[in-house]
Each structure stands twice: as structure tokens, then as C-alpha cells.
Amino acid sequence: MDAGLVTAIKAAVNPQRLAETALALIAIPSPTRSAGPVADELASILGADGFAVERPVADWPEAPAVVTRLQSGTPGRTLQFDGHLDTVHLPFVPPRFAEGALYGSGASDMKGGVAAFVEALRALRDTGALRAGQVLLTAHDHHEGPWGDRRQLKALIREGFVGDGVLLPEYLATPLPVAGRGQAIFEVRVKREGEPVHEVLQAPNTPQVLLAGADLTLRLQALHQRLQAHTHPHAGADSCFLGRLTSGEIYNQVPVECVLSGTRRWVQAGTIEAVRAEFEALLAGLARDTGTQVELDFSISGDAFAISPADPLVAAFQQAHQAATGAPLPLGGKPFMDDGNTFAALANIPALTHGPAATGAHTLDERVTLDELVRVAQVYALTALSYCKMRVA
Ligand SMILES: [Zn+2]
Q1: How far, in Å, is the centroid of ligand 1 from the Cα of 276?
Q2: 75 preceded by cis ω (within 30°)?
Q3: CATH tag for 182-302 (out of 3.40.190.10, 3.30.70.360, 3.40.50.720, 3.40.50.1820)
């Protein structure tokens, strides 16, 4: 990258302005499905700064999304900055700045990251460095589960608020995730007919749901072992994990139901139906062998995703990271699911998750340093410079 341009962009990221934006967003409580007031605040910050703001309802009238663009006026790629404004449902922690770090609800997840996006836009505008393409900033509600179902992001994608590639500022500073597993949460109910009954009064051949549940535990463990062969160099391996098994009321009563729940994760995108069918076949075998009825709730959180390490977005990001910090990032897997999986599945665009090395997400003790927010704002702005100038293939 042009050294003079890199110096100008880095100098244009203003730490104080960035911190003020982040603290203003943190100051407004926004538990998932109630992000309207903080979306209004973001829109007014952008508007006061001279950016034209759109407010698409995007399937959530409680909190219309916030959209703005920085256009170069010359053809090129569109880099999207996408963030969620909602926070998990925990008691509100007000904003605080102390010893170089920001605290409060959403500081780490992800109002700090959204503020870094805003500061990156300002740096690009103030330097006039963006000579081709455009940056599209989108911010929305309905991200955090189980309260949200991601409907607003899905609507934004349907309505065309989509770039050629997207950055997401979740709290993952290293590695650069180029793959991630899909996930389903399962709940299996192993049942028998009839009422609970004393063990000595049960009819002959009464199906034993608790034993069937134990049997299923072993079958799921065997499945997990087989799945270790399904690997991806960056995402890891398929898995089947059992986290909960409940049955029975007292020690000498024959129960009517055993409930097991856990996760099934997979590395290969586009295999949701095959994964589900394999799981259903396993349960059908259990029902047949144990004389029980087996019901399944198989709830898909999202599909697996992978980006080619040769994708132009990866190249642009690595150039930017090198320019901002002196080195590219190692490539790796994404340990959690985020909106990148949704972009990959529904918009079919490359999505990179990269954010500050922040701590305490989903706790009462979120903390992110201003230095980290400055670093990611520089990386975001430099990625835009590198990515947007490439012509769309
Ligand atoms: Zn988040």
C-alpha cells in the first residue's frame, strides 16, 4: 500500500472522537429487540457528521436499521461494514472510560466495533483517500439469541443492502477466520405410552425410556467419533455434543419421558439436510430397537461457511493489517457463529469477522481498550482503500 496514504489514514483516525462515539452508543440501553433509541443515536451522530442516513424498517419497526454510504463517485467494489446495535439481556452497565479502556454494556459486543466503523468512515472522508468504489455501513437489531432471530439482517440482505464483501467487528482479533462450523441445537424426547408407574407394578415389556436415553447417549458418542473424520483445515471437525439428559421423578418410578439436548456442528457448507437426515435415521434406529417413541426438535442456528484464502477481501484485509500493524494475521477458524454465516448463506458474499481484542462479551464486565478500537478503525479504513479500488469481476 502507498506509504503516504497509510500514514494519512492512520493519523486521521481520531481516538477521542472514536471514544466519544463508542461511549454515546454504550450510554443507551439496547437489549435485543429494543435497539430503537440507540439506532436513533447512531443516526443522529452520523447525520451531525454530515453523512446521509437511511432508516430502512427491515422487518423490525421497533428499531429501523441505520444505513449510510461513503461514495467515491468512481466505479469499484463496495465494502460493507455491518454491526449489530443490540446487546444481550443482562442488567445495564453504564459507560465508563478509565485508564485507556472503555467499559459498559456493549463495549465489547459490539458498540465499540460499530464506533470504530464510524471512525473509519470519517478517516476515509477526511483524507479523501477513497478513490474508487464505496463503503456501505449497516447497523441493526435482532442479533443476540435467543431473544433475536436475525430477522432484521435477513431483511436488509433481501432488500439489497449488501456489499461485494463485508467486515464484522465481533471481538475476535486473531486469527483471521476463513471458515467456521454450522450448528444445530437438538432436543430429543424419548417417550413411552402410559402413565408413570411404580417399578413393581409396571406391565411386562414396558419400554424403558431412561435406558433408551442412555443408549442414545452411547449412539451419539459413537456418531461423534465417526464425525471426527469430517475435517476442514481451518474450521476443525464435525461434532456431536450432549450437554443435558433428564428423566425420572423418584428412584422407584418408571418414567414416561427422557429428554436429551446438545449440539451438532459441521464443517461443510450446504450439508444441513444431509446432517439432519443422518440424525433422524439414528433416532429411528433407537425407536425401533427400544420400543420407544422418539421426537426431535432440530433447530438450525446457521450453516457452515468458508472463504477462499485467495478471495480479494482476504488479500485486501491482509494488506491493510500489514500496513496498520506490521504483519498479516494467521488464518484460522471462527469459534462462534455470527452474522458472517448469514451473509455467506443468504447474500453469497465473503464475510470476515475481525474486531478488537475485547473481553467480557455476554457478561457484566465488558472491556475494550481505546488502542484496540483505534487499531481496528485503521484496519477497516485501509481494508476499504485496498478492496474498493478493485474492479468488480
Ligand atoms: Zn456480537
Answers
A1: 27
A2: no
A3: 3.30.70.360
